[in-house]
Structure formats: C-alpha cells, structure tokens
Amino acid sequence: MAEPAVFAELPAVFAELVGQEPVVDQLRRAVAASAPAHAWLVTGPPGSGRSNAARAFAAALNCEVAEPTERGCGTCRSCRLVASGAHPSVKLVSTENVTYRIDDVRELVTTAQDSPQGARWRVIVVEDADRMTERATNVLLKAIEEPPPHTLWVLCAPSPADVLVTIRSRCRLVSLRIPPADAVARLLVERDGLNAQQAHFAARVSQNHVGVARRLARDPEARQRREDVVTLPLRVRSSTDAVRAAGTLVAMTQADAEATADARLAEEQAALRRSLGLEPEEKIPPKLRSQFKRLEEENTRRAKRAVADSLDRALIDLTAVYRDVLSLKLDADVELINDHLRDQLADYAESLSPEHALGCLDAIGAARTRIGQNVPPLLAMEALMMSFLPVEAHRR
C-alpha cells in the first residue's frame, strides 16, 4: 500500500500527529530556528496528541540530521533515545498521582540547570501540567522566567486555562485539535495493520482519540467494557436500576484500575527485592520496610488516579450516547458515534425529549466535575444515573 501523503510530508517523529499539519509546521520552524522560545505550552483535548507532539518536538530539537529543516528523522541515535525515554538531555515527566508533588517539581528545576549532554538542548517535557498545585507551579515559575541558555520547557495541558496565568504568559502556545476520524483510521491501517473496517470503527467509537482507538482495536475486553458502559442508560428504567447501574460502573472501573495497579506493584516489589539482594519469599528486614511501604503508598495514589481517569473516559463515552440520541431526535445528517447500536438508540430516543437528552448531557458534565473535585465516585454516579430516568419515572 502506498504511503499516505501526510506521512511522506512529515518528519518521522511527527507522523502520528495526523490532521495537525499547522502545528507541525509551527514546531518545525522552531526546530530550524537558532534560538527557539525557551518555554512552550502544548494544549488540546484528550486524544489530540499533546504528549506525542511534545515528545516529537523534543526529538526534533536534538535530531542528529545536519539540515535544520529536515530534523526529526526518527532513525538517528538521538531520536531513538528520545522515543525510548532514555535520552540523557530529554526529561519526560508524567505523574500517575492525583497531583505533582512539590519535591518532584524542585527536582525538575535542579535538572534544568544542567548543561545538555552531547545534544543541542536540554528539554524537559511535563505531561499533565494541569495536575500541578498552585504551590508546585510557583516553584516552577522562577525556572521558566530565568531559564539557562540551553534549556527548553514543554508543558502539556488540556487548555491554557488549566495552567496559572503567570506560567501561561511566559510560554509559546501550541494549540492542538482532535484529528479527523479518517486520518485516525488511516494511521491505524498504516501503522497497526488493521483493515479499513476495523480502523474506521475504532476511530469512530473512540471519538478520534488515537490511543483509545488503538486499544479498542487490539483489546476485545476493552471493547466489551465500552459496550457495557454505553448501554447502561438503555437499561435504567427505575431508581433501583439507576443505583444498580452506578454500582456496576464504579465496580468495573475500580476492578480494572486495581488489577493494573496490583500487577505493577508486584513487579516493582520484585525489582526492589532483586536490587536489595532479597529472595522472593525472604522476610523483609525492619530497616528496609520503609522502602516497601513507600511503594505501597505510591500504588494507592496511582490506583486512585487510575479510577478517576477510567471513570472520566466512561463519562466521555456516555456523552457520545446522548449526542447520538439528539442526532436521531433532530434528524441531523451526521454519522452516529455508536452507529452499531443505531436500532437500540432509536428505540431509546423515542422515550426522551430533546430537552431531557440535553439535561443528561449537562448531568454528565457535572459528574465529570465532581469526580475531578474528589466527590466519592459512587455518589457522583448515582446522582448521574438518576438523571437518566425516563420522565414518567421521575413523576412516580
């Protein structure tokens, strides 16, 4: 199959940023400049490729190709090291906790003072910069205001409003958008070997989120979990159904997050035992217990973040259900996100007014806000599911 023009025109490191050509041009101009801006803020909704853009920018800045306009080859030693997260002068930072810790940010500020090792630039990429508390952001502010001459900061956040204005005003803004479904499907075909039908289905139901589309295409269990989520409103006909549906949704997300977290904890504990010279079943000496305790505490924080993220993704999927319902109610000439459920959604739409469907969308937005504000997930989901009840159920 011939390589799509969008891939042929872009340096390899930017190839995954389908549908983002203006942004790629902006970053390539910065790479070619002798003195690019010292701080960048990459924003865009989930699925727009914020982290991919930041990593590709870091790789292109230090690419070993001599011609500045051609940097970002993806094959030189420097590009490969950035892709693997092992480049000595490119720090890729993310958090699996609810927020960044101040000590983590102080460590980054210290790292920023180091000269690049065998590279043009020391680049520090901070994913989820919106998860910094105000105190942590203030620690970062001084480093961004007065950076060393060969250090670049690249912060990622959903929108400029998610970052303190004092940081935002000192960064060059890069705004991404959700790529078109056709571009995502083409990427899945070219890079992941999917057939066109699989790729289009995954792109559509993921709402053009490249990472989610890839996971749905590859993982049957992930597809089934999504089906269980998007069909929940169709089964809510009474208060009992609503409470049961809320419990099912929370249990699903918690079980998935805890299983992943426990598996990772076991791997980390095994690695720590090996580094300390302990046998797999050997009792941990008292003086070493604090190290294992820290791993357990870190795992608890990760699990909490994973549950919140999983619930948020489920709520995005539920938003798609009511978007489809409104499209059917209003006879809109648009492709349904859940087109494979068209008959079921058409039957469900008969029981709702457009106003009720809009109210459900508002309730989903409120639930996402509550989850972000640490409201207990079960309470937030029960309130949401109650809003899905048919109007006659509310009257009883």
Description:
With 396 residues, the protein is of the alpha/beta class. The protein contains 17 helices and five strands. It has helices at 5-9, 21-32, 50-61, 77-84, 102-112, 134-145, 165-168, 181-192, 196-205, 210-218, 220-230, 239-276, 289-329, 342-350, 354-372, 377-387, 391-395, and strands spanning 39-43, 90-93, 122-126, 151-157, 172-175. Strands 2-3-4-1-5 form a five-stranded parallel beta sheet, with helices on one face. α6 (134-145) links the parallel β3 and β4 (151-157). α3 (50-61) packs antiparallel against α4 and α9 crosses α10. The longest helix is centred in the last third of the chain and has 41 residues, at 289-329. The chain is globular, with a radius of gyration of 23 Å. Residues 1-9 have low confidence and may be disordered.
Ordered list of secondary-structure elements with their pairings:
Blueprint lengths: L4 H5 L11 H12 L6 E5 L6 H12 L15 H8 L5 E4 L8 H11 L9 E5 L7 H12 L5 E7 L7 H4 L3 E4 L5 H12 L3 H10 L4 H9 L1 H11 L8 H38 L12 H41 L12 H9 L3 H19 L4 H11 L3 H5 L1
Parallel strand pairs: 1-4, 1-5, 2-3, 3-4
Helix pairs in contact: 2-3, 3-4, 5-6, 8-9, 9-10, 10-11, 12-13, 12-16, 13-14, 13-15, 15-16
